[in-house]
Amino acid sequence: MEKETHKEEIKYNVQKFGYHVTYVIADISPSFAYTIGLSNKCNFELVIAGGAFYNRAEKETIITGIADNMLETSNKNPQSISLGELGVFFLLPVDESWSKLFLLGVYDILQKENVVALQIVPDQSHFTLDIPKMSVPFNVNNEPVWQWMVKEWKYNVSKESTVGTDLDALKGKPIIEVTRWEDDYWEMYHGDGNDMPKDQIRVVSIGTMLGIDPSLKAALDVPLEKGLYRESADDDWKKWRW
């Protein structure tokens, strides 16, 4: 009964507003959001995947802002859209293999066999490594952050484990400091964690971090309140506080 009620809510939003936004909360894989129904008027749906720079409210503002822009203007296929302080966003084609993984609600509610979608990708200053390249077919080797969409969790820690990290690390700079504070919580920073500004810290899944940097597997065996450090990504990990 609850599922049918949710379907009716989606259909109501599509009829009244032109689309509905489904937000999938992060688990092992990053969060993502997509529209349902926008294709009735614009011939495509929108999806925003990953993007740890932004919080949930900002991601919802981004996808609704772009969807509303599509509905309100005559330009149904802009190459980019500016949303003020949130940045400039580019709209890139989504391969069907990604649509089959992400846009399940579109297939279910709209009863479509094929879904055309565009991926919302931020400008370089807001780009993080959890954002997949959805214009090419899905492949776990090319997108290891998203491998858990199709693979079982295989490590000896909870799949709900999380990591406090910084934006520099999420943009590609190497993790040089790791500390395990709880059974299911680590901190992994590009710089000194004691000096890390709070506005630079993000909390992501351990699966995301392992996808970005497989060498972080060493952190899974670190005892509580112990750590590892290294000078660069090319160095071996050294024990800290052991």
Description:
With 242 residues, this protein is of the alpha+beta class. It has seven helices and twelve strands. The chain has helices at 2-17, 39-42, 56-72, 96-102, 104-110, 167-170, 206-212, and strands at residues 20-24, 32-36, 45-49, 80-82, 88-93, 117-122, 162-166, 177-182, 185-189, 201-205, 226-229, 238-240. The chain has a six-stranded mixed sheet, sandwiched between helices. A six-stranded mixed sheet has the order 10-7-9-8-11-12. Strand 8 and strand 9 form a beta hairpin. The protein starts with a helix and ends with a strand. The mean pLDDT is 93.
Attribute tags:
single chain; 242 residues; alpha+beta; six-stranded mixed β-sheet; elongated
- Biggest sheet record: 6 strands, mixed
Nearest-integer average pLDDT: 93
What is the percentage of strand-forming residues? 15-25%
Strand adjacency order, main sheet: 1-2-3-6-5-4
Distance between the termini: 54 Å
- Helix and strand run: HEEHEHEEHHEEHEEEHEE
Assembly form of the protein: single chain
The structural class is alpha+beta
| Strand runs, count | 12
Structure annotation, total helices: 7
Give the overall silhouette: elongated
Which residues form runs of ≥5 with pLDDT under 50? none
